[in-house]
Specification:
There is one protein chain. The protein is an alpha+beta fold. The protein has 3 domains: 54 residues, Structural Genomics Hypothetical 15.5 Kd Protein In mrcA-pckA Intergenic Region, Chain A, CATH 3.10.290; 95 residues, Pseudouridine synthase I, catalytic domain, N-terminal subdomain (Alpha-Beta Plaits, 2-Layer Sandwich), CATH 3.30.70.580; 79 residues, Alpha-L RNA-binding motif (Alpha-Beta Plaits, 2-Layer Sandwich). 25% of the residues lie in helices and 28% in strands. It is built from 6 helices and 16 strands. The strands form 4 sheets. Strands 7, 8, 9, 10, 13, 14, 15 and 16 form an 8-stranded mixed β-sheet that branches. A 4-stranded antiparallel β-sheet has the order 3-2-5-6. Strands 1-4 form a two-stranded antiparallel sheet. A hairpin with an 8-residue loop joins strand 8 and strand 9. Helix 1 packs across helix 2. The longest helix has 20 residues.
Length: 247
């Protein structure tokens, strides 16, 4: 059966579909000895010899881990600075896995690692709008004006941020604690939004991904996702996308 090449690569554990598109356009993929650089190319994984960097690709058993990432770890599979990597916390894994999305080095909390490119695409692509919930602690008293600005969108260098939800607010003169819910998170977006509103972030912790949370998972620990959890996350993304298409 003919399938888009980036989907075949993603299912082989080479990365999310977007990452696999970059691999294709970089000229690293061949199909039956012919170099492919055009997106939209289809192939039959059962009949054609598909290689990446001259290494034949093979379908892998799909695996899913939930990690409570500590501060000090980066969410990348290749770091030229030699920093600690979140993937190195997961032990005894022979397949190539990667994080779905990223938490910056100073942030902590829940992140999923997998080799399932389709699953990664559904949880990270903006069109699926899967919520991510963060616990935030900032310096100073969080004003109603600041909350309104966050919820309506803040102008940053790339443009105006999408509206977020701010709730469970506990205000104090020295510190404020609250939760922020985002449908899409660009690089260090929460920190940049709060900095633009005049607040320094002390703690930034992701506590929920869509309908997935685990308050019992200790910092630096991980576990496999259950089949039911994977199915619920798939269903959540597909339900959101179907709703948007109807609207």
């Amino acid at each position: 059966m003919l399938v888009r090449l980036q989907k075949i690569l993603a299912e082989a554990g080479l990365g999310s579909r977007r990452e696999c598109e970059k691999i294709i356009t970089a000229g690293r993929v061949t199909v039956d000895g012919r170099q492919i650089t055009a997106l939209g190319t289809t192939a039959d994984a059962d009949k054609s010899k598909i290689c990446c960097d001259d290494i034949p690709i093979r379908k892998q058993r799909k695996i899913y881990y939930l990690l409570n990432k500590p501060k000090g770890y980066v969410c990348t599979n290749c770091d030229e600075l030699g920093r600690l990597q979140a993937i190195d916390i997961i032990e005894n894994v022979t397949q190539r896995i990667y994080t779905i999305g990223r938490l910056d080095k100073e942030s902590e909390g829940l992140i999923i690692l997998t080799n399932d490119g389709d699953f990664a695409n559904k949880l990270s692509h903006p069109k699926y709008e899967v919520n991510k919930t963060y616990f935030v602690e900032t310096d100073g008293y969080l004003t109603d004006t600041a909350i309104k600005a966050l919820e309506s969108g803040v102008w940053l260098s790339f443009g105006k941020t999408r509206p977020v939800r701010v709730h469970h607010v506990r205000k104090g003169k020295q510190r404020s604690r609250f939760e922020m819910v985002l449908k899409e998170g660009k690089n260090r977006e929460i920190r940049r939004m709060l900095n633009e509103c005049g607040y320094k972030v002390r703690i930034l912790r992701r506590v929920k991904i869509g309908n997935l949370y685990d308050p019992t998972l200790k910092m630096g620990r991980y576990r496999k996702l259950t089949d039911a959890e994977v199915k619920r996350l798939y269903a959540l993304a597909e339900r959101i996308n179907t709703k948007d298409m109807k609207e």
